[in-house]
Amino acid sequence: MPLPWMLGPMIGCGAIALAGVPVLAPTGLRQVVIPVIGVMLGSGFHPELLDHIGSWAGTLLLLPAFLAVAAAASYAFYRFVGGYDPVNAFFCAAPGGLNEMIILGGEAGGDETRIALAHSLRVFLVISIIATSYALALDIRAARGPDTWVAVTDLSLLDTAILLATGGLGVLAGKRLHLPAPMLFGPMILSAAAHMAEIVTVPPPSLLVTAAQITIGTILGCRFAGVSPASMGRDLLLGLGATIVLLCVTIVFAAFLGPLTGTPLAQGVLAFSPGGLTEMSLLALSMDQDIAYVSTMHVIRIVLVLFGMPLIFRAIGGRLIDGSRKSKD
Length: 329
What we know:
Blueprint: H1 4-18, H2 27-42, H3 57-81, H4 86-93, H5 98-107, H6 112-136, H7 157-176, H8 182-196, H9 206-222, H10 229-261, H11 265-272, H12 277-286, H13 291-328
């Protein structure tokens, strides 16, 4: 499978968590491994990339329309198929912003547990379904072989110093500038700049990246700790249904990219899929797709969701809350 070091722990920990086995996520390690992934993703940028940026315009034009249709379709599914009240349906339907939607939904009177479960399922299922489909249907698998492994000894002391600096300074800059996903995006920007300028030409050691993937996969799987399939089986099934709806919308919009921009369907699906920024970028890396293209689209997706969903809720939130009260009555 693509990305086996992340998908294996994610599926394994998720399965035993749902089975009731007590698991505890190593969330403290996330602060360490996310910058490593950011630096790794930045290494996928190269000077020749400037020749292709113009071809991204079509994707950027379609992205807002995709997010609007995806959110509306997911909302309709949760509201009319699942019978969720309007507030819960609205915040469960957002195609991104897991932590932010939980906070905003709770403040609006929604069920934080239900919203958290919906978004955890979205990320979990999108990654699992896409990786499996690409491997089985398209025969796109993880890139393996001696040429893909970067040993610690492949880096000079200067390379190591530059990569450490892009990681550390990137985190500080990301937080100071209030970037989305600052611990990932900050290091990714500085690493991309260093690689575009060819100050450094190697990625971080593969051993560190593998450890980071195992950690991320474990944390994702452990999000289901305390979730009982018996008590939340219906929510789990609705999460699966909503994810399938989102992926269908994703495939339709990705298919438009072919005639519009010449973007291959496999790459367009990765760019539009409403999974996590880190995870979808890693999938692109694993399957030898255009990391810069995929990660850039996901950063913009997150920005649009984080700014757009609260603005939309401000405009229609009063009616949703009134509808939610009537549903409860």
